[in-house]
Task: structure prediction
Amino acid sequence: MTNPEFTSMTVREALRDGMAEEMSLDDTVFVIGEEVAEYNGAYKVSQGLLDMFGPKRVVDTPITEHAIAGLGVGAAFGGLRPIVEFMTFNFSMQAIDQIINSAAKTLYMSGGQMGCPIVFRGPNGAASRVGAQHSHCFASWYAHCPGLKVVSPYSAGDAKALLKSAIRDSNPVIFLENELLYGHSFDDVSQDPGYVLPIGKALIRRAGKDVTLTAFSIMVDKALKAAEILAEQGIDAEVIDLRTLRPLDTETIVKSVMKTNRLVSIEESWPFAGIGSEMAALMMEEAFDYLDAPVVRVTGVDVPMPYAANLEHLALPQVEAIVEAGKKVCYRS
Amino acid sequence: MVNSISQNEALQAYHDMLLIRRFEERAAQLYGMGLIAGFCHLYIGQEAVVVGIQSVLKPQDTIITAYRDHGHMLACGMDPRGVMAELTGRVGGYSKGKGGSMHMFSREKNFFGGHGIVGAQIPIGTGLAFAHKYKEDGGICVASMGDGAANQGQVYESYNMASLWKLPVVYVIENNRYGMGTSIERSSAGDTYYERGKGWKIPGEKVDGMNYANVKEAALRATTHARSGKGPYILEMDTYRYRGHSMSDPAKYRSKEEVEHIKEQRDPIDHFRTYLTSELKIKENEIKEIEEKIKAVVLDAVEFSKTSPEPDPSELYTDVLKEEIAVS
Ligand SMILES: Cc1ncc(C[n+]2csc(CCOP(=O)(O)OP(=O)(O)O)c2C)c(N)n1
Ligand SMILES: [Mg+2]
Result:
């Protein structure tokens, strides 16, 4: 990790730098959303962009998500590369029709003529104590839809390099960030404006031989912590940071399971029809003969997010639950 | 001020507005102490709006608003204990601690929330009005939104249906000049929100929302219109919020002078107090008595919100679905 080419910064700064670099390289790239310009972003991700690029390219909007998304799609059809910020992805529900019906499907419906190079980005998943309408991971919702790419990075370096790829991509990309990670620093950020990471490639963050743990975004942090605890108990876990949910890097996951023969899938959202369900199906289809134990899903509890501190803690996947799941698939609980 | 306010009514209005202000000040303190978390949007400055409107409502009427909802709840008679305990996430709260500041409800008081998604309460309020008409229960719905929310498309989709079907609903736009850090000048191409129903033939008026008597008068016109079967009515309340958008907002987008100026010139409570003593000749000690009473009520709510226990862990799984099935 102490490669001189990489520097340390927060996820928040890395995302801003990623946008700024791409805006410098391509003047069709612009940022639009609520409070992105003069307020410097509700979560300060677009800090300084207005000063750097001016109000033509950093655009404050009224509170009108459905129209912002639709306007973005139109601008993309018209030859621009919009970065649409949702203050949080909870509010993308106001706009989901434009995202799915207009952005994701039009290339197909036009027999390949159209295409919509647009990034929808913003914080996704639970923040802290903001209740059910503001705490929701939409990874599996968007990952369900053909015509979209869905990225959800963990580290600052990945956030920057993947956001740059998302902006350069010719397709609509849903870019799911995490509010609680914004302030975390990572020393893996490239300062080279040409450096990008491919969408669709997972990363093995910890190599191991006994069990595969898959996670994305803030859950990678918990998976790594759980892996440390499992190591103390003699279980050597491999932690895969999925980074992209659509297209999913099935090759990396299957290869890992061929080695460990066990899979625990971790996500913050609800279990039903979630990313973990997809993992289980993937194992049935592509790694059935290699499994020594049924796949276990660690997910948020199947209820809307409660506000009370104690209940919120219980509703979210915690490190202990991942440790338990790791032991269970190794028949050690 | 109009002369139609009796001493009793005036004292009640003063009580209700001051209760909201003192409650909110305590909520801010509890937030600072870490007892309240997440988003918490205070109503300080806007008290005359809800108290004025509430004064003309009937028990069967329904109320709905967004997340800046503590004032609406206290005005419609919900228990300060239950509201404060919801803010601290305790089982004694209106949602058993599961909703928090933005998501509280009371069937008993016909308060339908408490909504965290900007603008989403407006079609819902329109649906409540639909139900009033359908059931012919004589009720109307008062659906409130901010100046920011007034730019959401679903507001206009609601206006159309409400007018088309003459639904008994009063839309209240609490124009406090900002939606988070964006002033109305930067968010709205036209700032006459009360006129925005014109295309759908909905009457509207702009009201001094810092003045209890003016709010009451206008609310009476609006509710009478809606109640008599003539359809929706729009009230734009010219008001102001003194505090940041939520507890985490340093409010750098406006000057201290702007806030101070409004506090001095237009504060709904200070001005009303002066009116009580100089116009209505209410004695100072009578007002002091109310102030003391409110202090005690709010302190009691604070105490309750600290001592009410956290919800039992089993509550995590309750209230997801209802068990009963309608019988035909
Ligand atoms: C659909 C949606 N978009 C964005 C937000 C974030 N947000 C919360 S409050 C707010 C400002 C609303 O301003 P206004 O309607 O004027 O109400 P006020 O806060 O002034 O009472 C915004 C943008 C949200 N909660 N819901
Ligand atoms: Mg406002």
Remarks:
- The interface with chain B takes residues 34-35, 38-39, 42, 60, 62-64, 66-67, 90-91, 93-94, 127-134, 301-304, 306-311, 314-315 of chain A (CB under 8 Å).
- Chain A has a mean pLDDT of 97.
- The CA atoms of residues 151 and 245 of chain A lie 6 Å apart.
- Residues A 34, 63, 65, 87, 91, 94; B 68, 116-118, 146-149, 176, 178-180, 245 surround thiamine diphosphate (ligand 1) (CB under 6 Å).
